[in-house]
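Q: Can I see a sequence and its folded structure?
A: Here is a first one.
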Amino acid sequence: MGIPSFGFRAYALLFLKHGTAGRFKQAELDWMVGPSMRKKIFSLLVHSGWIQKQPHNTYVCVKPGEIVAKALAFRVPEIMKEAKKEYAFTGLSAIEIWSDFAYVQRGIEKSPYFIKVLKKDLAYWKNFFNRRGIPNYVDKGSTVGEYVIFIPVKNVKAIEKQGFKVEGLKEAMKHARSNDIYSYAYRYMRKKYGRVAD
């Protein structure tokens, strides 16, 4: 999860002074910032997983390597279980699911998820992912790591598959057939589901 620069600077100071073994209290920042800013910094660092609360109102820093690894972890599939609005994985994301992940479009460098959502729910979805620190775009966009591309539509038709809501098999097959890059996934789906899928 990305954090503002003031949070990063506070973590850097605490880590340089205490490493990952030394415990410290919020009072550590008393002479630098006021009480409300201090509470904000500690809340941010705990919520982001950069420091951990310990007994007796003390804290310890999380190892920087763990923070970096978490920043590029795949979180979207698990997060989608918390969604309260209609959606359907579409495009390349649907090909992944219908091909039982025989085709995978993601790596830690770039991990897009394509999701159809109702136009009227777009504000909900942007807030849903923003609160969790996951970059998101409408129709197109790109960044390092995991991100979501919303495809706003008037109606969402979804099928439950492997715990995901995904567009229908015919749409996924049509998309897979449209480009040789996805030929392996297309052949896999044809073999598994038969010609009826076309």
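Q: Show me another, different protein.
A: A second, unrelated one:
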Amino acid sequence: MKRFIVASFLWLACLGGSSVCSASMFSLVRSATPLKSGEVLTGVGFGFQDAADGAHYVRVPRVLLGVGFADVVDFQVDYEYLLLRHDPFFPEQEDSGDAVLATRLSFLRLYGYRFGLGVNVKLPNAADNKGLGTDETDVQILLLTSKTFGKFQLDFNVGTGLMGDPTKNANQRDLVVVGISASYPVARDVSLLAEFSMNSDLHDVRIVGLKQGPFFNDKNILKAGGGVIFPMFWRVQGELFGRAGLTGDSPNYEIFFGLTRKFQLPKFPVEIGSS
């Protein structure tokens, strides 16, 4: 079933079409192109995840807010409220989930490639004793690369993730973070996206329960899947994603639906005079 889901999305991403490719705001793979100066991004979404240990997580709402500066750097806040609906070792819980602060700096254009530096920081606000998170500050430092080949838009992320272990004091795991996505327009303002990621999602719940009891999952989490990006109303963009885990330590599957909109802050004239 997992292989069928992955193969379906990869096949859809190769279909023909026309139009300009839309950028995904909720993809696990980040573009090297930041928001433009004075551009504000707002988003809200809903997600469901079936974890490898039998837990069912509902993410509602997930809120995204970003702003761009000087066309080369932007800042984003990605917050979610998390509900644990079923788990054999944790009772049903609901509480504030992870909040991720992210910034990216575009520093080079070369031979049609765009390069950037991305830093993502997860705040310690998801309780590990409720099975909702790690209650640790996790950090990702990534090299971002983007390139357009005709109508294909390719984004590639590689770097390292510094992840704390709540079950051991002053213990840290260093993981390799890799992500690649390809998007292609199939109609006016409609694009398909395929992606593969390893340890790219800071929202992943790393406290899991097995027969020996809850423990910290420090293994590599691999996901593949994709989705569709489409216009809705009042310049709102819809995004629908499906992902499948590729290893036993990864979530079985997850689905996500989000709405985003961008708008430009007004530029006020500045007058310099003397009294």
